[in-house]
From TrEMBL, chain A:
Biological process according to GO: transmembrane transport
Domain ABC transmembrane type-1: 83-271
InterPro entries, alphabetized: MetI-like, MetI-like_sf
Keyword Transport attributed: yes
Family per record: Belongs to the binding-protein-dependent transport system permease family.
Protein name according to UniProt: NitT/TauT family transport system permease protein
Originating organism: Salipiger marinus
GO CC entries: plasma membrane
Gene3D superfamilies xrefs: MetI-like (1.10.3720.10)
Protein localization: Cell membrane
Ligase in keyword set: no
TrEMBL record, chain B:
Matching InterPro entries: AAA+_ATPase, ABC_transporter-like_ATP-bd, ABC_transporter-like_CS, ABC_transporter_ATP-bind, P-loop_NTPase
Keyword Calcium: no
Keywords, ordered alphabetically: ATP-binding, Nucleotide-binding, Transport
The ABC transporter domain, residue ranges: 14-244
Protein's organism: Salipiger marinus
Name assigned to this protein: NitT/TauT family transport system ATP-binding protein
PROSITE patterns: ABC_TRANSPORTER_1 (PS00211), ABC_TRANSPORTER_2 (PS50893)
Family: Belongs to the ABC transporter superfamily.
A GO MF term: ATP hydrolysis activity
Lineage: Bacteria, Pseudomonadati, Pseudomonadota, Alphaproteobacteria, Rhodobacterales
Nucleotide-binding as UniProt keyword: yes
Positions of transmembrane segments: none
């Protein structure tokens, strides 16, 4: 029998001896969280392999996973080089989107007139498909890498801008009053109130912008259609499609997906690390 | 001190002269409010919603501007004290920063005045001890109950050792038990620290239990209609709540409050 007592301070029941069944359940759930998706993915790949083999599908239509894996190894060096290029493009555009979005978001939050005048530009930039602007940018900007960077940046920039501006304004009005009562300086208000209040909004934007930056980088490269030494995964896909090297196409596609997943996991982890101890969106609830 | 820390000779701490508040949408929140509050008084602003009691409190704190008339606090125009440290304010909700620990929340007023964590530690600990939360310094607000959060809020208001404590319906959202417990704690703080308290409430019982004076206000436009001094020589204990004096005082204040309601459209 377990002995439970009421903690006089918290008023919560505290179990003194029993092995905590909640902890066990939690551990089992965490294990399932890992095992289930991996198993499902494994099954899907196995089925794919089987169906291709069973129906003798030619590899120029749908290559078997094993063939894609082989291509990944044989073409590894050139594919990796392309992946590195795409990573560089994505991360750089994301970094610039964060710098630009956060600074302009702060200006917007500080000044309504500036926001009202500049917001239409931001919206136009956002709603115009990047595929449609990319050719123009490629004409005006002679350096291809810079042109690609601008395209990817345009896509990732907007969510950061709008969420930063909204987040900075979302501070609790009573807390604002508190800061006024104690005559906080504008800098103190920004540092201790507005920025922490904006963080959940910013983190949500970062998760979206991370994925968008990759999409922007890939799309821009498709439009640019660049060939040669220093090119990314999108170029590999295009090139393989021209040469009818379908396994290579799948291999490059696989690497793009992996990059996307890594970006998603990294931004999710960062969000949990920053907000986990206080914000509703990242707090684990006990069921 | 068993008797209350104020006397007839105490100086005026707050002086409101013919104060109006008109909001930008044309609503007259307050008209012609004149009131003097002496140091050491415990004053309740009692009235229906829309009577301007919270507005008056925020104007005293300097959080809202005065449309007409003048408010002085401790000889200075409201909102122009040296650094805000002589006023503590407790909001209707606990109004804590969810990203900060209990310690950091209570530390905030001192931090805004440039006092680092190490220098402020003693005073933050003292304020937390005052409300019985010494063991929760490292907890986050979401881990606390509503009553405990409100205690943190009170500790934060007390950490600057203010002379004046302004409370805006602080316990309205709490259950009855927690509420009466916190009422006693506020009374204890008032006595032990020689505070002046202004307490906004819409509860007759709360105002009678706590105050040395009840200011009854009416709505549309917000104004003062009664200023009722209460006997201060009776200790405010559980026995007082059961006494006939308490019941009679409640009835008297209740009648005064009902008088303000006759012209109010209750369907509004």
């Amino acid at each position: 029998m377990s002995i439970s007592t009421i903690d006089p301070e918290t008023g919560l029941a505290v179990d003194l001896h029993a092995p905590d069944p909640r902890l066990l359940r939690e551990r089992r759930e965490r294990r399932l969280q890992l095992i289930l998706p991996v198993a499902a993915l494994g099954c899907a790949i196995g089925l794919w392999e089987f169906l291709v083999w069973y129906h003798e599908v030619p590899h120029y239509l749908i290559p078997a996973p094993s063939l894609i894996a082989k291509t990944l190894v044989t073409d590894g060096a050139s594919l990796m080089q392309s992946a590195l290029f795409t990573v560089k493009l994505t991360l750089l555009s994301l970094a610039l989107a964060i710098i630009g979005g956060v600074s302009l978001g702060m200006v917007f939050a500080l000044s309504r007139p500036i926001e009202m005048s500049l917001f239409p530009f931001a919206v136009i930039l956002q709603v115009t498909p990047v595929v449609a602007i990319a050719p123009l940018i490629l004409i005006y900007v002679s350096n291809t890498f810079a042109a690609l960077l601008i395209c990817a940046w345009i896509v990732a920039f907007f969510p950061i801008l709008s969420n930063t501006a909204i987040g900075l304004r979302s501070a609790d009005h009573n807390l604002r009053d508190m800061f006024r009562l104690y005559q906080a300086t504008p800098w103190q208000r920004l540092r201790y109130l507005l920025i922490p209040s904006a963080l959940p909004y910013f983190m949500a934007a970062l998760k979206i912008a991370g994925g968008l930056a990759l999409i922007g980088a890939v799309v821009a490269e498709f439009v640019a259609g660049t060939a040669g030494q220093n090119t990314g995964l999108a170029s590999r896909i295009l090139e393989s499609s021209f040469r009818n090297e379908i396994p290579r196409m799948f291999a490059a596609l696989f690497l793009v997906s992996v990059l996307g997943v890594i970006i998603f996991l990294a931004t999710s982890w960062l969000s949990r690390a920053v907000l986990g101890h206080w914000h509703e969106s990242e707090i684990k609830r006990e069921g | 001190m068993s008797t209350l820390p104020h006397g007839a000779t105490a100086p005026d701490l707050i002086d409101m002269r013919d104060v109006d508040k008109v909001f930008s949408n044309g609503t007259i929140a307050l008209r012609g409010m004149s009131l003097s509050i002496k140091q050491g008084e415990f004053v309740s602003f009692l009235g229906p919603s829309g009577c301007g009691k919270s507005t008056a409190l925020k104007m005293i704190a300097g959080l809202l501007s005065v449309s007409k008339g003048a408010i002085t606090v401790n000889g200075h125009p409201a909102g122009q004290s040296r650094d805000g440290s002589d006023i503590g304010f407790v909001f209707q909700e606990a109004t804590l920063m969810p990203w900060a620990t209990v310690f950091d929340n209570v530390h905030l007023p001192l931090k805004l005045h440039g006092l680092g964590k190490a220098e402020a530690r003693e005073r933050v600990d003292e304020a937390l001890a005052m409300v019985g939360l010494s063991n929760f310094a490292t907890s986050y607000p979401r881990e606390l109950s509503g009553g405990m959060r409100m205690r943190v809020s009170i500790a934060r208001a007390m950490v600057t050792r203010p002379k004046l404590l302004l409370m805006d319906e602080p316990f309205a959202a709490l259950d009855e038990m927690t509420r009466s417990k916190l009422n006693d704690e506020v009374l204890a703080l008032w006595k032990s620290h020689g505070l002046t308290v202004i307490f906004v409430t819409h509860s007759v019982f709360e105002s009678v239990y706590l105050s040395s004076r009840v200011v009854v206000m009416a709505a549309r436009p917000g104004r003062v209609v009664h200023d009722i001094p209460l006997a201060t020589d009776i200790p405010r204990t559980a026995d007082y709540r059961m006494s006939t004096t308490y019941a009679e005082t409640c009835k008297q204040v209740s009648t005064a409050l009902e008088g303000t309601m006759t012209h109010v459209d209750l369907n509004h």
